[in-house]
Structures are given as structure tokens and as C-alpha cells.
Write a structure and sequence with these properties.
homotetramer, 403 residues, alpha/beta, 5-stranded parallel β-sheet, 13 helices, 14 strands
């Protein structure tokens, strides 16, 4: 890894970290830089970012509009797989990294780069989520991770370096949170969060209202799904971006989608993170409720177990792997009939199910009802129980296992 | 099963179902009846129940105070195992059945019964949860399940039978919900719930206030755990019953602990249930947060997976099985260091973590912090990533798996 | 189930059990009988069976040649899924039942039957493997299981009944094994096997030579696979039936493929079975060796785990289920690159791998070799280990978990 | 890791690799060396090894007799957990590393060392299996892994270095296999094995006779187990070392216990290994057969799944982890009743079960027999099947899931 790259494609966000990387690269690797700006719905002014990149030393800039593909190709599959990491984190950052890395690799190859660089630190998950895709998609490219090379060891150092190299920053030492945003979520790390015995300050949250400020009156919305994919709101068919944008606004207003957890990073340490995923939280709940009608018990149990596996793959940056793809094949089949509508009520941070309906529902009122009917003979249950209990009965009769 | 029992021990709750069973048994099985009343914290007037049982035909009555044992021997192990069935149900009814069945068997053996009877229908889970324990603990006893034998096929039929046999009922046809309560929870089935496209009516809920009525001001409480078992509230050591009673009151006031789901019954059909588990919901959340400090990643992942298995065993009535006991051994070891305190805020139906602390915390601020330190060399991550990604890199270089 | 069927389709094998069912059905259900004879490669004289069925009372006979479809549609998917039940049983009987039941249902519907019957006892697995497919494919059909209805309780009773009704039998009381054969395997139950402390007598085995009689000289054969499916022997492309027929002969001659185990039946009891699967044993071994080249570690681990699930589904008769189909989707993807050849040596009951080759091999001699090369920097391993060990290091430094 | 150690404890085997490490350490780290020689039953002349270590530059030598503890504390737990890695490897090397590392750490701490060194390369699994225990047991110790530091890149280089530094070697360039032996097994890597399309040469195998040379006559042996632990041979109670020594001799004579596989190393690449585990193969088979009598189906299924997890932990060097210990707790409970005897026949490389007996057997001849009895009512199976099949029946009736 000591080769001198001829041209470098940098994943550029315009934040403090990637901004100072441009002058640092110029100083240490005398090669032209292509700044790759990925629009995954974070809502930045991409023209302004382009200018900033050029001004601070980038030789070329590519802005890639990826929001729709991000949702349909990365978020929906993860949603369908039922992924929730550590019971609460909806994987917003994890899902965005592979599509950004993939685009970065494509730009690198198209513009004649032989190296790729990113602005992730050596302690976090994101370096993995960038570099594993590089290795899977273009292992011949050199990887430059300045945070693992340079002497900058703190945010304060980084700001000093920026000032010294005339990199404009809107970041001040007081803006202590490290954040990552896209159309699905925003994450918060650092500052007060570094102490797990401290509550996240109310002013940290950006996309969701507090319980206090959330309206006293609930609002309902109906989400339509086709084969596990969200396709409509209140009966209106929408693009993925339009659907999630509207749902984010609605759910955020009602304080839906906050999470605060101590998680286990892939590189080995525990860390604290807070997340806001307003629309996503609604979708996860709604899809689960629809599946409760359309998926049979055995498939649901296996899907739940595989959802944990899928979540770990996504969290760990192992998106471009045969295992992830094989799990997609499982999920696609398992949800082939998961079409229908779920009506939910958003209220004071809650997503409350009002109605689940599906043309493929396996729920039978006649079967479930207390009142007995013809589909099911209660006497069957006696035989069922006696077969299920046979091993314990034998153990008891043989005097084994039980006192 | 056509033998004539000499004496029958009946699991007696005093509700409509078990009340009419006494005269029905008298009519069809001419044998003395011992009514076994289990106090698992449902808060009934047990003296009144005793009188009612005797008045309607029971020959003997045993009232068994089981609440403390129910919590320490059944609820705490399930809590420690991390059980949540179908992502939302906290298994309140499922955990109570085995202890009731066990006591019923003990009474049966002590009073010379050769048969046991229960009032569960042939469509539900509870028949399994009674009868599998019978088979494991005393397979020689005959099992009588009147609901699988008689002609009564609806609640209306049951009421008519009660009236005909002068069984006093406070149940009317309008009181349509089928309910089961203990110190951990109350369940609701039937009525409007039988349609999954209908919202539970607000007046169905009994233990938790509505979001509207829950106070605008949050309340905090600190739960102390020792080896995964809740032992104190706000620093005050309490018995299990005292602790949960107080927590139920607090959490119920803030609307915490409602669940509404379509679930998959063990006997094969989907059904709809609603549950209120106020204090339990707080404990599940708090323990999970404490574990996030004290349990390492690999153990946590395995524990999560085994928690699903444990939940299914409990849901399915397979409590007295070698597998459940072996899983307990796993959990006890996994939580041997899970001692500490979690402070939570109860507000508008939410349990929000305020602080997690443990003398055995594996969280290292120095490691987690953005600022770099000595415990961890960032360059290590490069090697880590290159080893993790080696299979995908080789696949790419060999032209396999990736286009 | 007390309805009087108008016409009955019987799964007819020509053995003792199904032979006496014809007169018994005539006696108890006065309806025409269609005998359905499935050829799954068991090698019977089907014309003779047809005559026997008609002679003993069947009104119609359908002989269905299913061997090729049995292999391609049932055996190959199970092989690809990596199924081995209880570590040794290759599921020969389990895989055959669903295709027979499916054909039986098709014949029933085509010939105007409203009932289906089979000759399995009420203690075994096969009743489940027939009836679950009936329920999945044509739940409206009445199911008749004479063994669960009649008074015949032993093989001796059955023979007496046959003699009384002039049903010709080549079965004598001394021929005590209950057997099931198809192109994949033969199973043996009963007789000396009922005692798990008794060795299977040498004369019980039918398809495989004893170790003593197997040749002293090994024989080699090369199996070609495409996407996990066996397609050729020694370079010669063959139909499924031709391939397995030849492999059975070869492997049987060398004593390959015996299994003898105590297994856990789905209906709850333990039982003893012995199996001969000569060609199948070779295929299972060969495919596993090929996968060791073509499948990456993470996918292989998951596939192994799901193989157990698949094996249980097959064993339990749950073939026509959404879960089995979703697992197929996973496997098909996981084995999309598993093309290549495996050369094995058959010798004294062993299948010894001689050579594994694949155009998609992920094995890199340069990487595996003791001699160091360029693809991998040994220093990376240091970082890898330090990240992997970080949780235990922190636990040790914090004085947690380790004494 | 650039600190200068004051004193180094070296895991010393006396082979080529560790022998040249002594002069190399002397050259690069001017500190006294304590050579730690672990006797895990590899059968070396330890006095000779001691002299060799001193002669080539070690300042102190400690010979630690660990064979009995190796079996009882490491091998038996892994045996009980049912571990087989990649379906064939019995983990002989993997289990030995942690006990050696633990002893090395103890010696290091007792003799005032501040560093530990080992002779594993940077490409293999063993470096991980040494260093993770170091990190778990004494993270303050510096780790020196010469193979990841020096310029020696091949066996030829190593031999040249040895000759130059007058280190006596019995290794020649032609002795190409890299081997590791202990009482449980011997492993072979390198040489012809590096090509997965080449068969292991017959002269590579050291502990097991070829099929050709194995006796034509079988030999039987009865293994007694208590709670899953082997305690006797043919009724004679033996220490672990005595038992395995005798079993190795017996099984080796009959050619039992060879394995040859392409495996997935923890550091990411595929490699080829061959193993001989004669006595161990007998024990694995015998214990599995005993468990088939004593363990119920549900526990057996879970144990099988957890066995894979345990095997990966052991293979990966993650012995000293909370997860491994929690899995032990599970296994200990699951096998609490696995006491009994298994008689096996060793013949031409096979371990054939002759008889399984246990006072805690759950096998009931009456239940398993074809002949019907009183313990089980066949009609129960009908109800069992109808409950199990209800979801598919409903799906079919509702027109969902099936065409």
C-alpha cells in the first residue's frame, strides 16, 4: 500500500472530515483528486458542495443523484428482510455506505483513478462499510484512509488543520455531534452521548418533535405494500422518494422514530448512538403488521431469525456478499404474497395499528373466533397435545429427566 | 380416556368457563371435585371464589398463593432470556399456565385425585399449556377438557347452561372479551378484536391509561438488577411482588405497555390478541439497556437468537422440558455479570432510558470516543478489514461471484 | 370425517398393508377404489401390481412413472440444501412421500374421487408425509387412514386378515422388516432393529455389500455438477435416473451408504431405522467437497444451518410449504456457482475424495501456501486479531468476566 | 508495540519454526527468553527438547505436563458440545492452543516476563488461537510474532536461517508437511495438499493404517460415558489419558479417523488440511449414539445447532470468551442424563455401532414397535396432523400460496 496513486477518487460529503482531506491528500499524495458527492437524500445544496470541493483543491467533481436507487435497491430489501440491529437501530447509515462506495468505484474506474479515499476514522464502522465494497467491486484500487494515517487525533485538531489550510467550516468546537443523514435517517454520535449514563439533550434531535411538542391529536395514514415493498400512501401511488419524504414529515411531526442505544461496533468496542428514522419506523411497523396476516408461522419464525443475520451483514458493511444476495432470494419468496394495506395512527411518538387488510390474508375469522365452527374439530387438539407431549410423558414414565 | 375418574382436580378461576364446568362434570363424571384456585396476582377475592366453588358443587377447594413464586420462578427466567413473542407479546398468560398446572397436579396427588380438568377451549393455546405440564409431571392422571367434549359451542351457549344450572355469573353477552390476568399482565381476546381491520376500542384497556389521559409530565424510576434479576426500585430493595406491583401502577398511569397483534397459535391458526403489561414493559426495556453495557457482542447475538427459541417454548406450553432448562443454564451464565441500575423516564406510553450504569460495564469511554487514545491503534482496523474482506477480494480477482 | 365417500383414490404399493386395505375399504366404505401405483424407481413389476390390485378389488388402477421427476424435483433440491437428518439419514422415504401424495391427489381429482387413502400406520412418520400434502393440495378431500381405524394391531393380524380375504402375500411372519424402497434408498425397520442394543443382522442389508465382500481394490468415479445438480459421471452426461442407477450399482458394490440410527419421529417417539443409500452417499460427499471450493465461509455456515431446517421440513412431511420453497430460493442462489467436478474413490464402504476442481473455485494456492506472497500481507493479521480480541481485552482490563 | 521487552516467554515446540525464533529474538530483542514447552501428549522427548532450547539460546525452560488437563478441560467439553468443524475436522489443534497459551501466560507472569512470543505464521489460524487467549488473560503483555515481522518467507528460508545460526534441524526441505500433534490428533498441511485436486499421498498418514493394511477382522470395544464424558473402556475405568491412548492405538490399527478437507481459515482464505483423529473419531460416534437414546428431540436439535457455534468459537481461537462458557452451561445441562455404554466395532476405517444402552434411555420398545400398544393411541396422530397442517389447509382454502 505504499504505491503512489496516479489519481484519487474521494468520497466527499463537504463536512469537516472530508473537507480537510483534500488539502491533506494534496500534501501527501501528489495526484489529481475526483470528489464524488453522493446525493442519498441528505438534502444538501449540491451545487454549493461542488464549488467548495473545487475551491479547496479537488480537480474534478461528480455529483451523483442516488436517492431513488438508495431506497429501492438498498433500503427496501433491508426493510423486507425485517432488519433491526440490536432491537432498535434501523441501519440508516449502514445501508447508505455500500451504494456510495459502489458509485465511487464506478466514478474511479470511469475517470482513470487507481485509488479511492474516504473520511472515516479508524475506530468506527463506516471505514468497513466503505472498504469492503471496494474490495468486492474493484480490489485492484488502492485504499487511502487518512484518519488511519495522519496525526489529527481529535475534532479540535481537525478544525485547527482546516483553519490552517483555509478550508471554510461551519462546524465549531461546540457543534460536537458527529452526524450522518440521508433520506431514511439521521444519526448522532459524540458529545454528551459518549456517557451512557447521560440522556440525549432535547436539542440534539433534528427530525422529530419532542413528546411535549407533538400534537395532542393523532393523525392516520394508510400504507400500501406490494410484495413487501411500500408503494402508496392513503391510496396514492408514489415513487419511493416521494413516499418516504411525505412519511418522514408526518411521522417527524408526531415525534415518531427516535432511538438511543449502546451498540457493539464491528471493530470491537461498544459505542453510543442516537438515531431518528421517522418514516422508516412507520414502515417497519406497518410491514410487520401486514406480514402477521400474510406469512405463515414457520416462515415467519425463520424470517425473524434470518433478519438478525441480514442486519448484521448490513451493519458490518458486508452488503456485496453472496450471503446477502442469497438471503434476498429467501425474503423475496417469503414475501411474494405480502400485498395489502396497513392503516396506522401516529400519536405522541407511537405508531399504532388501526387496520390490517390483505387479499392474501391467512387470518380466518371463523377459525380464530371463540365460537366453534366447521373448519376445525376441537378434538384434534387432544391428539396434537398428546403427540407433542409424548417425549415428556415417556421421560416421566421412565423416571428420566424429571424428579 | 374412557375410564371413570374417582376424583377430579379442577383448575378453577371462578369465571364463566370454569364455573359451569363444575355442574357439567357432576353430570357426566360422578366423582368428587377439588377446585384449585391459583393466586398468581390477578387480584380476585379468593374467599369469595372459594364460596362460589363450593356453592356450585365443588367438594373441596384449595387456594394456592403463587404470586411470588410465579415471578421468581417463571417470569424472571423468561425476562432474563429476553423473550418477546412475535416481537411484542410478553407472554403473561403463557408463563402463568405451567405454575398453575404444577400446583394443580400437586393438589391432585395430595388429595387422591386420578384426573385433572381445565376450562380451556379446544382452539386455543392454553389447553396445551395445561396439558403438557400434566404429561411431564404426572402422566398417569386422566385429563378432562370439557370444552373439547361438550355441546357448548359459544359464549351464548355457556351462559344459557349457567343459568339453567343456577351458576351465578357476572358475565353478560355484552361483556364479550375473553380475558386472563395475573400480576404481570392482562390479555384481551374476542369481540371487536376478532377483526384485524378493527382498532381495539379504548374502553377495552384496563391497566393502562390512554395517551390522552396519561400525564403531560414524565416520571422517572431507577430499576436495580442483580445478575439480570430486578431487585430494587429507586434504590429500595423489594420483593418481586412489591416491585412489580409498584411498577405496574407507575407504568400504567403513563400508558406504558399496550400491545395489539395478530399472532400464530400453536394449534395452527392465526388469532388476534391485545395485551397490557405495564411494569413488565419497563423491566424488559431496562434489562435490555443494562445488558447493552454488560454483555459482549457475541454473547448478545446468541442470546437474542436463543431468546426466540425460549419464547416459543413458553408460548407453546413447553415449560417443563429439558430444553427450557438447558437454555436457563445458558442465560444464567450469560447474565452472571449483569448487575447495575437503569434509570428510565415514563412518558406518554414510552419507556425512555435516562441512564445505564454497572460496575461490570464493558463500555469504555476512551475506546468509544471520537478522540483517539492508547487502547486502540487505528491502523489495526486496516488489517481487520483486509482479512474480513479477503473472501470477496479473492472472488473478485478470480472473476467469481461478482460481475 | 364420518361422511361416506363416493370414490376413493388409494396410494397402492402392492405390499401387505395396502393389499389388505382394498378388501377392508370395500367392507367399510362401499365406494369404488382407484389404486394409484407410483413408480419412484423401486423396481417393481408394475404390470403385475396392476393385476394384483384389480384382482383384490380395485376398480381402476393408475400406474404413474415418477422416477425422473422424483429425482429432479425432490431429491436434487434436498441434496442441494445439504440435508442430512440426525447426522446420518439421507431422507429417502421422506422425499418420496410428497410426490406420491401429489400424484395421488391429481389422480383423485381427475377420476372424480372425493377421498384419499393410504396404508401408513398411526405411529409412524409416513402418515404425516401423505396427509400434509393432501391438506396443502386438496383440503376438500376426505382422508382415510385404515391403520388408525381398524382392529388390526400387528403384522400377524394383517396376515390373518389377508388370508381370510384371499389376498395373495409373499410376506411371511418371518419376513419381519418393514421396508420402503425407491431409486434413492431402501429403509429397514422392525425385527431385530427394535432393540437399539442389537446390531443389524448382515442379511438385512439388500443394496450394499458387506465390508468383507466389498472388493479389495478401489474404484474411482468423477461426478460432474452444474449449479449444485449432478449431471455427469466420468464426463458422460446422463439423465438423473441413469446417473443414479449407475452410481447405486458402483457404490453398492463397494459397500457404500449404510446407516443405522435411533431417530426421533415427528409424532413424538424414538425409533430405530437402518438405511442404504449407496449412490446418494457418494453424491452428498461429492457435492460437499465441491462446495468447499465454490462457496465462501459465511454462506457455507448459513447454508449448513438452514440445511438442518430443510431436513426437518422434509422429514416431517412439510414439503408443500412456503418455508421449504423460500429455502430453495436461498439454496439456488448460494449454489449458483457450484459447477465443477469431484473425483472420488470407492473403497470398503468409504467415499474418499481424490480431486476437486471448479472453474469458479475460490481456493487460491498462492494464498493458502505456507510460502508468503503478494496477495496478503501477514501484518494485516495482527490488526485483525487485535480487533477481534478487543472485547475480551477490555473485559480483562476492566476486571470483568475473567478472574 | 515498539516497546523493548525485558523478558520474553516463548511457546516452544522444538520444531523448525520455534527453534530459529530463539536466535532471531536474541538478535532483535535483547532480552532473556523463557522457553515454555507444553506436553499435550504429542509424545516428544521433553528432556531432549529442554536441552535443545537451552543450547540454542533459551535462558530458562519450563516443561509443563498438560495432557490430562488438555483432555478433561478442553477436549471433553468440545466433544460434549458435539463439535465437528466443516462436517469433518475434529478440532485437535484448535483445542490445544488455548491451554498452551494459558500456561505460557502463567509462566510469563510467574517468571517476570513482559512479553510473549509464538512461532505461528501470519497466514494461519494458530496465531489467532495464541493471541486471543493472551488478550483475554493478560492483555498487558506485549505480543511478538516473528513470522509477521521477519524476512523469512518460506520453509527454505527458515532452514537456511537455522543452518546459519547453527540450530540443529531434523527437518529437510523434502519433509514438506507442516504438522501439529497432540494426544487427540495430528494435522498435516502443505506439500501435495496445497492442490485440492491432488489426493493425500499414503505415506503422509502417520497414526492410522491404510484400508489395505487394516485387519480383515473387526475388533469391538465398549465405551462408558458419564454425563457425556468418556470414563471407561470395556468396563475398565481409566484416566482420560489412558483411555484415549488405548483407543488411539486400537482405532489407528483399524484405519479409523482420517479426514481431508478444504477449510475456511478465520483470517479469510481457504486452505487444505488433512487430519488423523483415531480415538477421537470413535468417541464422537459413540457419544452421538448414546445421545440418540438419552436426549429428547427438541434438545438434540438445539444442541446440534449450538455445536456449530461452539465449533466455530474453538476453531477461531475464541476459547476464553463468555459465549463459550455459557454454551458449556447449556451442554452440561443437556447431557446431565447422558450416561451409559456404547459398543462399537472397528473395521476397515469404520466405527460401526453394535449396541447402545443407558439407564436413562428415552427409547421405548413398546412405543417404537410396529405392534400397537397402550402407551399411544393411533387416533391421536390424526389430530396432530390436522393441527400441524392447518396453516397449509387454510392457505389452500383461501386460495393463497398454492396454485
Amino acid at each position: 500500500m505504499n504505491t503512489n496513486p496516479k489519481k484519487i477518487a474521494l468520497a466527499y460529503s463537504g463536512g469537516l472530515d472530508t473537507s480537510i482531506i483534500i488539502p491533506w491528500l494534496k500534501e501527501h499524495y501528489p495526484a489529481p483528486i475526483v470528489a464524488v458527492i453522493a446525493d442519498v437524500g441528505q438534502g444538501d445544496d449540491y451545487e454549493k458542495l461542488r464549488q467548495k470541493a473545487l475551491r479547496t483543491g479537488a480537480d474534478e467533481v461528480v455529483v451523483a443523484p442516488l436517492a431513488e436507487e438508495f431506497l429501492t435497491g438498498y433500503v427496501w430489501p433491508t426493510l423486507k428482510a425485517g432488519c433491526v440491529y440490536d432491537k432498535t437501530y434501523l441501519l440508516g447509515t449502514s445501508m447508505a455506505r455500500p451504494i456510495i462506495a459502489k458509485k465511487q468505484v464506478e466514478v474511479a474506474l470511469a475517470t482513470g483513478c487507481d485509488a479511492v479515499a474516504h473520511g472515516c476514522t479508524g475506530k468506527g464502522n463506516d471505514q468497513v462499510r466503505f472498504e469492503l465494497p471496494y474490495m468486492a467491486l474493484a480490489p485492484q484500487l488502492q485504499v487511502i484512509a487518512p484518519w488511519r494515517e495522519w496525526d489529527i487525533v481529535s475534532r479540535e485538531d481537525a478544525i485547527a488543520y482546516a483553519e490552517k489550510h483555509h478550508v471554510p467550516i461551519d462546524q465549531t468546537v461546540k457543534k460536537i455531534y458527529s452526524r450522518d443523514q440521508n433520506l431514511w435517517h439521521i444519526s448522532h454520535e459524540g458529545g454528551a452521548l459518549e456517557d451512557p449514563a447521560q440522556e440525549p439533550p432535547e436539542d440534539m434531535w433534528l427530525l422529530t418533535r419532542s413528546l411535549r411538542d407533538a400534537p395532542d391529536t393523532a393523525e392516520t395514514v394508510t400504507i400500501g405494500f406490494e410484495r413487501g415493498v411500500p408503494v402508496s400512501l392513503d391510496g396514492q401511488r408514489l415513487s419511493a422518494v416521494a413516499l418516504l419524504t411525505r412519511l418522514n414529515e408526518l411521522a417527524g411531526r408526531h415525534g415518531v422514530g427516535r432511538a438511543d442505544l449502546v451498540e457493539n461496533r464491528f471493530v470491537g468496542m461498544k459505542s453510543r448512538g442516537a438515531y431518528e428514522t421517522p418514516g422508516g419506523t412507520v414502515l417497519v411497523t406497518a410491514l410487520r403488521e401486514l406480514e402477521s396476516l400474510t406469512v405463515d408461522r414457520a416462515t415467519a419464525e425463520m424470517k425473524e431469525q434470518l433478519g438478525h443475520v441480514y442486519a448484521r451483514l448490513v451493519y458490518n458493511g458486508q452488503w456485496f456478499t453472496p450471503l446477502r444476495e442469497a438471503l434476498d432470494a429467501f425474503t423475496d419468496h417469503a414475501l411474494a404474497r405480502t400485498t395489502g394495506e396497513v392503516k396506522v395512527k401516529l400519536h405522541k411518538g407511537h405508531v399504532l395499528t388501526v387496520a390490517r387488510t390483505s387479499p392474501n390474508s391467512l387470518y380466518s375469522n371463523a377459525l380464530a373466533s371463540f365460537t366453534m365452527g366447521e373448519l376445525y374439530d376441537q378434538k384434534d387438539a387432544a391428539g396434537f397435545i398428546r403427540c407433542i407431549g409424548l417425549p415428556q410423558k415417556m421421560a416421566a414414565l421412565l423416571g428420566v429427566n424429571r424428579p
